[in-house]
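Feature request, filed as a ticket because there's no other form

It would be nice if the structure record came with a short human-readable summary line next to the tokens. Right now we just get the raw output. Example of a typical job, pasted below so the devs can see what we mean:
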Amino acid sequence: MVFSSLLFMSLYLPISLLIYYIVPQKYRNLVLFLISLFFYAWGEPIYVVLLLFSTVVDFSHGLLLEKYDSNGKMRKLILISSCVINLGLLGFFKYSDFLIMNVNALLGTTIPYLKLALPIGISFYTFQTMSYTIDVFRRQCDVQHNIINFGAYVSMFPQLIAGPIVRYVDVERELNTRKISIDEIAEGIYIFTIGLGKKILLANAIGSLWDTVYSSMLVGQVSILSAWLGILAFAMQLYFDFSGYSDMAIGLGHMFGFKFPENFNHPYLSLSITDFWRRWHISLGTWFKEYVYIPLGGNRKGKAMWLRNVFIVWFLTGLWHGAAWNFIGWGLYFGVLLSIEKVFLLKYLKQMPVVVQWGYTFLAVIISWCFFATANITESFAYISNLFSGPLVDTAGLYQLSNYGVLFAILVIANLPVIAYLEKHLSEKAYAVFKIVYIIVVLVISSAYIVTSGYNPFLYFRF
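Raw output as currently delivered:
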């Protein structure tokens, strides 16, 4: 079940909210826990057991850390146990076949693949449960003694399957006590609708162009024009798909009394790669910074160790996104660019005209998506090559440009902080009217699109 489906919007969400609002506040975490398990079981009836196991593991480890509060050695062993179990499960389900493939290629063996189905959202909820145990170990949050409350945090359906990655410390207070107001619910509906519009009206609309170009490239070289249109289409689809889903999750959080962290902040307006990664998938960057980069020493132990830490983080970031060399290549690509910027490029870049800063960043990001969009590292380099070699234009490219030109113009505008501008410059009453009209129009058009179109993918389910 996805948020951008009529089943979710017309049945699951209204019924869930009705039950949630009418029960006494002390039972709301129980209701949230149960409806979240139902939501997950709808798509993963077997792997809901794995989700519950992860919940019990980290809840128990939190209690053990409290029990051995004065025993530093035991606390470290408990933390290691939690990390090994969590990462072991993630590694087994997500990376087993990748490991087998590389062992077979390296040693000439024929170990059979396990062909395990990837549990939806395992990359997200594993990082979330680990954040709890690590923060309890650091004494940055209190131990949760109610397993229902903890289960509600782990399984909370708005952000369970695709983030944002919500650390326990981000919602600790709200998990234990929260108040829901009409204003918060209205704001939640508005933010949800913004995300729905991004997903249905923008991401889905441009996604078909990427599918067309990519399919053509698999059977032969496309023109340079088509290659650029294709990867630009993918860049826009990925952003509006994922940021739209994050907005929907944040909006749903408001409806249930939670304020989830922002996950995207107009990343395609970035003026450096460093700036881009402050704006793109913010919750993931924060997680790696807090739980990998800083514990490794960050930039405090000299340039050589700092570069090592950067490449470890970006190797793991790429690997987190997928069990394939193209994802690892994607991560290391950003590791190289960030290192170059930090060592010398950034200070010179800031002295250049804004358009040069933006052009460099946007080009670098677009090239990175060639690793992200393709099925393997060979295809990635083939697509990058196609961006700069081959026939300049062809009839297919010209047709695509004419057919999608207006949509690209709309996407450019949608990348700008238009809503923030309206909020700042409209009167409070005018902005309130705008929000109501926006909600109605987007809901009606999106619902019609969902009914009439069978194309409604969600890219981040892959991860």
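Something like this underneath would help us a lot:
The chain has a mean pLDDT of 94.
Residues 6-178 form one domain.
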